[in-house]
Amino acid sequence: MSQHPIVEYTSPSSWAMIEDKLSPFAKETLAKLIKFMEEDVYPAVRVAHAQLPTDPATRWQTVIPVLVDLKAKAKSLGLWNLFLSKAHYPQFGVPLTNLEYACMAEILGRGGQLASESVNCSAPDTGNMEVLARFGSPEQQKKWLVPLLNGEIRSAFSMTERFVASSDATNIRTSIRREGNEIVINGHKWYISGAGDPRCALHLVLGKSDPDNSDKYQQQSIVIVPANHPGVKVIRPMQVFGYDDAPEGHCEIIYENVRVPLENLVYGWGKGFEIIQGRLGPGRIHHCMRSIGAAQYALDLLLQRVTDPAKKTFGKYLYEHGTVVADIAKSRAEIESARLLVLSAALQIDKAKAKGALKEIGIAKFVVPSMACEVIDRAIQCYGAEGISQDTPLANMYAQLRTLRIADGPDAVHIQQIGQRELKRAPFVTQRHAEVKKREKALAAKHNVKAHL
């Protein structure tokens, strides 16, 4: 039996550990995805970059031609909406588990935004599709979810605000209030990913609809706002380490007396916090899955550089200098460790849904992006000036991965939550230790000895 092509990209040992947990359909789809990436997507990354105009007048109005071709081919191959598990979304999903998608997302992570979008698996659309599939009304699903699933439109998730600490979602100030049969939205958002895309048709807007509610987690609601609706003002595209990530971008937006019909409310009044918790869990792990692929790609680039005879210094290959070999070994070990974290979290989501995998997701969220940043940084150091230039993908990869330490909850929040969760174990650990000491004392008395430790 021939070896699965995934072992050329991932660890043979980690694949051996999970191979029997993948269905024949998943293995076939994974092999098909790898072939599509190798033959079509990876070679198109630089082409897509070249097809995006530098002129701001056209840059934000462009749908990249090669991406259109890739999406059409991916759909014809059945490589579409791979993130949406049928087990959790029977009406809309595909027959893949989160564990199976984790393997695929690692492959997508090597090709950046282009790879994910080519198979309709790119943020923020993935999270928005999950929200509408889980919480949307039949009318909302027909009008907005189906076109998103078909890749006909794109979307934005409008949560982060400029003048508050948005890492605490209860700080959100955007006002959402009912007036008769309408909902009126007023607020100032920024870093709203996807809002710059000419195909962006809707924003899912989080705001406060009941600010006086004694339960601070029932003060928020989410409303669907058409992107071109009166009162929606896209102020400017924000930059991330100097990158604008056009055409989707990360925009500053003002909602000024935006009026939408009452049926645009998602799930119900006061359900906003519940919705975002359901949305962010899978989104966080998807980012981690792709980050493993990005780190692996950075290590591959590092290996090429340090073994390139044209890049010798002082008569030696780069790997013969200093701590380069140690850096390679550390990178390999860290990628392997982080991959196991991600696979563990994905498996737990399959068993207990995102809510039952909060610990695993939280740990992965603050471990994996930091690991990827370290690996990419080592690769940059080996490339020297070229590593921070536009001539390699490393600088952009670093910017994206460093951003993930803030996006979807900053590291400090996840670390605090995991630490607090561990502290809850203290009474049990203390009791267990006391029981051992009690037995130890009885055993010492039986043998008439005194412990020396």
Walk me through what this model shows.
The protein is built from 15 helices and 7 strands. With 453 residues, it is α+β, with helices and mostly antiparallel strands. The strands form 2 sheets. It has a 4-stranded antiparallel beta sheet, with no helix packed on it. The chain has a 3-stranded mixed beta sheet with strand order 1-4-5, covered by helices on one side. Helix 6 crosses helix 10 and helix 6 packs antiparallel against helix 11.
Runs in which pLDDT lies below 50 for 5 or more consecutive residues are: none
Shape: globular
Question: What's the pLDDT, averaged over the residues?
Answer: 96
CA gyration radius, whole angstroms: 24 Å
Helix count equals 15
End-to-end CA span: 56 Å
> How many E-type strands?
7
Return the structural class. Answer: alpha+beta
* Approximate helicity band: 40-55%
Reading the helices and strands in chain order gives HHHHHHHHHEEEEEEEHHHHHH
Strand content range: 5-15%
Largest beta-sheet details: 4 strands, antiparallel
Task: Give the oligomeric state of the chains in this entry, treating copies of one chain as homo and distinct chains as hetero.
Answer: single chain
Strand order across the largest sheet: 2-3-7-6
